[in-house]
Amino acid sequence: MPNFKILIVDDERLSRRRVRRLLSLEPDCDVAGECANGTEAVAAIAQSRPDIVFLDVQMPEMDGFEVARTMADARPVVIFTSAWDEYALRAFEVQAFDYLLKPFDGRRFRESLQRARHRVTCDRSGSRPQIGSPLPPAPRVSPDRIAVRNNGRVVFVKLTDIDWIEAADNYACLHCGSETHIVRETMNELETRLDPTQFLRIHRSSIVNLDRVRELQPWFRGDYRVILRDGTQLTLTKNHREKLESRLLLGV
Predict the structure, then answer these.
(1) SS3 letters across 164-226
(2) Please, what is the end-to-end C-alpha distance for the chain in angstroms?
């Protein structure tokens, strides 16, 4: 079986270097080249016809989405890389295979690469539909953190640090212990991106981290009180009660 040809596309030299270093640990992977912008990437893909492309989202001249839309015929497996999690849904709209949120660790990188190699191997053997055939729905992305912009800075909040999320018009408040971070996103938008095995909507204005729930207490008119480990009390409406009880009592 021939090795896997991989193209690295990123306008940041340090990012390209890190991906190359991680690939150097994989004996069956050959780096076909590096590109610093979208225009270079389009030419390199046409010339070297790589099996897998690690493609940055934000780049000069052409961004990653524009590059992906130019691909035809022998389309490579595309793994998008970005420091911004809000581009994930757009990435899968252009048939991305995976979406790595920077700074990703070696384990996450290897998992994605292993799955990509398996896809390429299946393509080579003809054991899956070829390009042009209907494709299965893109997998759902559940990032492990959320980017919060604050006074020109970007703070990355780990999902495991979030106790609960509160609606505030078109914003959402991420309650993390003694800290609260505000993101410009609606609850519906956040809910679609969160891991449903970890977070659950219990009210139109609140989402709770299931690991933080300490107990449930009956309240008025079929509603319940959700008591978190730190003593925070939230309202559980009756239309969400069955789902929460099944998750906490039976597991997912």
Answers:
(1) EEEEECCEEEEEECCEEEEECCCHHHHHHHCCCCCEEEEECCEEEEHHHEEEEEECCCCCEEE
(2) 40
* Residue type at position 228: L
The string over 46-55, giving b where at least 16 C-beta atoms fall within 10 Å of a residue's C-beta and e elsewhere, is eeeebbbbbb
Can you read off the two tokens belonging to residue 117?
């190699």
Please give the radius of gyration of the chain, using alpha carbons only, rounded to the nearest integer: 21
What's the pTM? 0.53
> pLDDT (tens digit, 9 = 90+) per residue, 20-78?
999 998 999 999 999 999 999 999 999 999 999 999 999 988 899 999 988 866 689 99
Cα–Cα distance list, 23 to 9, 51, 65, 93 (Å): 14, 14, 23, 27
* Structural domains of the chain in order of their starting residue, each with its CATH number: 4-125 (3.40.50.2300), 145-250 (2.40.50.1020)
Q: Residue 52 in contact with residue 8, Cβ under 8 Å?
A: no
State residue 112 phi and psi, 5-degree precision: -65, -45
From CA 72, how far away is CA 148, in angstroms rounded? 36
Give the DSSP letter of residue 9: E
